[in-house]
Design brief:
This protein has about 300 residues and is an alpha/beta fold. Helices cover about 45% and strands about 15% of the residues. It starts with a strand and ends with a helix.
Length: about 300
């Protein structure tokens, strides 16, 4: 199990390579590239990127840093939004989903996390669930087809509240499997699951049992903690999640992926002079979780 960190922890503070360097200095040699934050930047010229050349230059900077420092890019986060958002922002982010999948293939990133689209309604109503699933397929099917060609997995993430589609393991599994053969229940090789520990905690669902249901569909993790009342994205042991329960669930299913932190608020809340030390602490917490997973 490798210990990884989303570079979103320093988003907005310097170039992408400068952000990666600070994550590297804290001890991380595996990283998650947050396409999501970058493609949501807007200035007087419009949304990032403003041209194909700017996008290519940004990706080249990531490639160069990774090669120079021996960093492994294990996953990424696609545009973070509701795919049904009917705004200029929503249109831009929908248009950026395919470029981020192609960028992941270029950077050698195996998994790109996306959120299932959601809408108002009762997600315990089978008819509403089928309607939302069909609308998601209309958007994601072409992306999955391209991802399959490129050897990239789209990892669908569990959502944090009951009023969102795919907030339970059962619903997320049903959606994931619907990209494969319904007759035999085989999920498409290009679709898997990203389990967000904080989202599951906020939803109040049992994590070990849920991870056992997910099984080998699990491609990657978002590791974060909270008090179970809001999505706090803090470090393990700073909230009320039972981490031994999660570790046991990962052991049960023989998880072979990375331990990827999305715990940026541990770092962002402290003074600038303490941020790098806080990120180093997060790496040490990762080592402790890895030790428990490996039973050492």
């Amino acid at each position: 199990m490798n210990i990884s960190k989303s570079i979103n922890v320093f988003f907005g503070d310097g170039s992408v390579s400068a952000q990666m360097k600070r994550v590297y200095n804290a001890g991380f040699r595996h990283m998650d590239i947050n396409f999501s934050d970058w493609v949501d930047i807007k200035d007087e010229r419009g949304f990032f990127p403003h041209s194909d050349a700017e996008w290519d230059s940004w990706l080249s900077e990531i490639e160069t840093f990774s090669a120079d420092y021996g960093v492994v890019l294990d996953q990424a986060h696609g545009p973070l939004f509701n795919i049904f958002e009917d705004t200029p922002r929503g249109e831009h982010l929908r248009n950026m989903c395919l470029p981020t999948i192609r960028a992941a293939a270029r950077l050698g990133i195996p998994n790109v996390v996306f959120h299932p689209g959601t809408d108002k309604g009762d997600f315990e109503d089978p008819a509403h669930v089928e309607e939302i699933k069909a609308r998601n397929h209309a958007f994601y099917d072409p992306l999955v087809a391209e991802a399959e060609k490129l050897g990239v997995v789209i990892a669908m993430e569990n959502m944090p509240i009951a009023s969102m589609y795919c907030s339970t393991a059962e619903q997320l599994i049903d959606f994931c499997d619907s990209f494969g053969s319904k007759a035999v229940g085989i999920c498409s090789k290009a679709v898997g699951i990203c389990w967000d520990t904080g989202h599951a905690h906020l939803r109040g669902i049992p994590q070990r049992e849920s991870l056992n249901l997910v099984g080998d569909r699990l491609k990657c993790l978002h590791v974060q903690d909270s008090d179970g009342k809001s999505d706090q994205h803090t470090a393990p042991f700073y909230g009320t999640i039972c981490w031994d329960d999660i570790i046991a669930g990962l052991q049960d299913i023989g998880y072979t992926g990375d331990l990827t932190f999305e715990a940026h608020m541990l770092v962002r809340k402290v003074p600038d002079s303490c941020k790098d030390a806080a990120l180093t602490l997060l790496y040490q917490i990762g080592k402790e979780l890895k030790r428990r997973f490996e039973g050492k």
